[in-house]
Write a structure and sequence with these properties.
With 102 residues, the protein is mainly α. The chain contains 5 helices and 2 strands, in the order ααββααα. The longest helix is centred in the last third of the chain and has 12 residues. The termini are far apart.
């Protein structure tokens, strides 16, 4: 019988942070899988490089966020500019998630 190896720390961290991943809404899953959380923090989870997004839905309208995501490759100030190519449904899912954060 093979001895099971311990999980790599990044997997343990992911599971501890997002243990209920399959139950999360599509926009939140995309936020996680696209690694937005590496830079952005929501409710104490995630990085601190980018703006904190816990209450982004109270600060930005759906239209503001649509404009941002649809022109993401043009936002030179964003470190991931030009690297994300979200299709319309993904943008809608992300925006739905972000506007719910109030």
């Amino acid at each position: 019988e093979k001895e099971l190896k311990a999980k790599p720390s990044f997997i343990k961290t992911f599971e501890e942070t997002f243990g209920d991943f399959d139950d999360l809404p599509p926009g939140q899953q995309l936020f996680i899988t696209s690694k937005c959380w590496f830079c952005h923090q929501i409710d104490g989870k995630g990085g601190k490089v980018g703006p904190e997004l816990s209450k982004i839905g109270a600060k930005k309208s759906k239209e503001d966020l649509e404009e941002f995501f649809k022109a993401l490759d043009k936002h030179k100030e964003h470190p991931m500019a030009g690297r994300f190519k979200f299709h319309d449904q993904q943008i809608d899912d992300l925006i739905g998630y972000l506007v719910s954060l109030k």
